[in-house]
Design brief:
Bound molecules: adenosine-5'-triphosphate, magnesium ion
Mean pLDDT: 94
Distance between the termini: 38 Å
Number of strands: 15
Order of helices and strands: EHEEHEHEHEEEEEHEHEHHHEHEHHHHE
């Protein structure tokens, strides 16, 4: 008898031709998620088995695996030979600790069709054994307190489990390309990054800081957020870009009402350079393994329509118009309350609400323009040397490993 964890594939079963590629990616991601532990990962029919680990690590391994995108169910199980007597002995032994009256049912799944009993027959045999061994157990088919799972797999092993949990679902990170995610220290952008990783996107983060106007703690907070997200997103790098000169120049030379939208335009143009010119990152990273496997092809932000004055369709349009690279805004239709709920669930909320100033609040006007017109933005941009400012900002790029 040995302890194993079984992970069932999710949505990727639907993906016909890509299936093998997706599964390979998923197995690689699974390995990464628990690389700090000693464990064996094996593929079986319709699922992945994790075994051979130190029982003391089981809870930590379970937690990490529950965050890997691409699995629909996760369950702790006992592995025995697919032999009727061994199955019955294992079930009886596992239930010995339950002393209070309880309702149960047995649910057998059999992918090994050569096993001599059908699933309904095995349900009956196991159920009968439980009832005759423990008088405080009662069968309840529709709404049992305990589901005894028996899964007979093609490797001639049986897996006995007690209740399965929903896993992270989504698609394996890496199968949908890569994106540059604008990560502030706020509540929204970590959630936006998480949502896109859930759709299989490999995420590289960029944070715009304004040191010394903003603190080193503010920079650290962003790295902390990236670290919290790491078991799910598997992201490896965070890029810092200093925009102090941009903000000072805008503050001095342009209409203050436009500060936010102009900063966003310049941030977008910096990101666009990074996406279109992979050398910018390659030249700055000595460990090439940290570079994204896929080509960066989109920008991700945590904007939500109308959440703050800067997030109107007019302002978002002006920022979109500044570059050709596509913007993905996964939270655009979400209420703040919904976003907070997800932030709490994924563990970023408590860090996000720490009170360190974001670069965007430096020089922020009291009444920012809410419906910026392209021609007015262009007039403001004409007052600064955007090319040089962008070039200078790109020379400050600092890449850190998460
Ligand atoms: P968040 O909670 O993500 O900070 P927010 O509601 O505070 O969002 P804004 O400050 O208007 O909204 O920022 C909108 C989006 O722009 C953010 O979600 C983020 O993607 C990006 N952004 C803002 N400031 C920065 C920054 N300093 N570095 C990187 N991205 C940023
Ligand atoms: Mg913010």
């Amino acid at each position: 008898m040995k302890n194993v964890i079984i992970l069932s594939f999710g949505e990727l079963w639907l993906k016909g031709e890509n299936r093998e590629h997706f599964i390979r990616q998923l197995l690689g991601n699974t390995k990464k998620a628990i690389e700090e532990f000693n464990a064996t990962i094996k593929r079986t029919d319709g699922s992945v088995l994790v075994c051979g680990y130190n029982p003391d690590d089981e809870q930590d391994i379970l937690r990490n695996l529950s965050l890997v995108f691409g699995y629909s169910k996760i369950v702790k199980a006992i592995e025995v030979d697919a032999d009727e007597k061994k199955i019955l002995d294992a079930v009886v032994k596992q239930l010995a600790d339950i002393s209070k009256p309880i309702t149960f049912k047995v649910q057998t799944k059999r992918t090994d069709k050569t096993f001599p009993k059908t699933s309904p027959e095995l349900n009956g045999i196991v159920g009968h054994k439980v009832l005759t061994t423990y008088s405080h157990f009662t069968v309840e088919i529709h709404n049992p307190e305990l589901v005894v799972g028996v899964s007979i797999k093609q490797n001639k092993k049986a897996y006995i489990s007690f209740g399965e949990e929903e896993a992270a679902c989504g698609l394996p990170v890496g199968v949908s390309g890569a994106g540059l995610s604008l990560l502030s220290g706020g509540i929204d952008s970590p959630v936006a990054s998480h949502q896109m990783a859930k759709r299989g996107l490999e995420i590289v983060y960029i944070n715009f800081e304004s040191f010394p106007y903003t603190s080193l703690q503010a920079k650290q907070k962003v790295l902390d957020l990236a670290k919290i997200l790491k078991p799910a997103t598997l992201s490896k790098i965070l890029i810092y870009c200093n925009i102090k000169e941009i903000q000072e120049t805008l503050n001095k030379n342009t209409d203050k009402k436009y500060a936010v939208v102009l900063t966003r335009v310049l941030m977008a143009r910096i990101c666009d350079e990074i996406v279109r010119n992979p050398k910018l990152l390659e030249e700055r990273i000595s460990n090439k393994k940290l570079l994204p496997k896929n080509k960066l092809s989109m920008l991700i932000t945590g904007e939500s329509l109308g959440q703050v004055a800067s997030q109107t369709i007019e302002n978002l349009t002006v920022v979109n118009n500044a570059i050709e690279t596509i913007f993905i805004r996964p939270l655009i239709a979400r209420d703040k309350e919904e976003i907070i709920k997800i932030a709490k669930k994924i563990g970023t909320f408590e860090t996000s609400i720490k009170p360190y100033e974001d670069s965007c609040t430096v020089f922020a006007p009291q009444h920012p323009i809410t419906k910026a017109k392209q021609k007015d933005v262009d007039l403001e941009l004409a007052r600064i040397d955007a090319e040089t400012l962008i070039k200078n900002a790109l020379s400050t790029l600092e890449i850190v490993e998460i």
